[in-house]
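Case study 2.
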Amino acid sequence: MKHSIGIFGLGVMGASLAKNLERNGYPAVVFNYTYDLTEQFMSGVAQEQQFTPARTVFEFVRALERPRRILIMVTAGKALDSVIEALKPFLEPGDILIDGGNSHYSDTDRRIAALEGTGIQFIGMGVSGGEQGALWGPSLMPGGDEGTYHYISSMLEEVAARAEDGAPCVTYIGKGSAGHFVKMVHNGIEYGDMQLIAEAYDIMRFGLGLSPGTIAEAFHTWNQGELSSYLIEITSKIVNFPDDQKKGVLIDSILDQAGMKGTGTWTSQAALTLGEPIPTIVAALHGRALSSLTEERQLAQSIFPKGVNQIPGDPAEWIRKLGDALYNSKICSYAQGFALLRIASAEHQYGLNLSRIASIWRGGCIIRANFLDLIKTAFEDQPDLQNLLVHPTFSEQMKDRLNEWREVVSAAVGAGISLPAMTASLSYFEAIRREKLPAGLIQAQRDYFGAHTYRRTDMEGVFHTEWE
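Prediction:
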């Protein structure tokens, strides 16, 4: 029996996607360089499930229908390059390689270029949703040749998550490396979102002195309204989860050092290259880096006062205001990500449809949230919308919450709580709404020490002043 799809790489994500594909009518041949992992996978599937294990690359390719469709789920970078080289001698024109890993978008462009002329098609596909998403329905972001996408689209639609309106959380993203670029920005937004939620927790736990149970209830309540999202939902469960090793909650015993795998850094680097400000996302990246400065933090604790001051006032009222501040801050994080996608689409000629991207992020992925419906509609209304903050839907919401946002940030900073992402979101908003920024002074300084020139507001032309 020939199989309709091959899965190369049986780590957590590869194994989960293989089971998802088979369950939805796509019998899979599976392969892993380490055969004991293949055996481990096969031992965990039912006898009636249609999987065929392969011991060699040749056996793997031979078991596939033509044109062959191969989903590669290996570590990004050199490992993926070696897999492509191992497969190439056995492939034919029309065969399709799908990279479902977190590859850097520039590597995807390089691989597409390297395969040009061979007839072998290459799809760079972002996959979001973690292990459970891969198993039961992820958000999929395939980019590359549009004709090739349509050959695999029905398969991807079957295994993708479904939004509440039933739409599959997959669409053709765009040319070249568009799929991996969009997945990278998705992860950047995720960094910002997670940091903002952590800061809200920090304010409640230490600034307001609330119990884990009360904090869990606050997150649960938020998740019933406009803040409803996957990350808010799981946070409501995490913050009051009991520690099975000792009395108390588990979060108190988890080392406060946040890890990262590179996509947040890549997003920040891409934004700097393209000249698009994404301060919330960058602040979240720096927040993780700060958490790892163990020696510096210990030294500082021996010099400066420890802990934070209590924020005075009614905790219930502060929770309400904090929900408003968190909503506005989260919108800024998403706005920055979509603004980066807009400018990258023009720069790299991706042809991104931002409304469709918002649509496929409504289910399956880590940043899925109710307000993505509003984002989807905003870009449907105005496909050339430069920034979500100026769309009436979001501008009206943010104006209604502005005073509470400022109050929360002021109170938390006054209490000695670090808010890198929330203050970055607020500063981003304050800068965008200002008629005049102090950048004129910076330009004057540049002209003073480097004769970099400046423009005037009251006349045309480029000017330089002899300041001495």
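DSSP finds 19 helices and nine strands in the chain.
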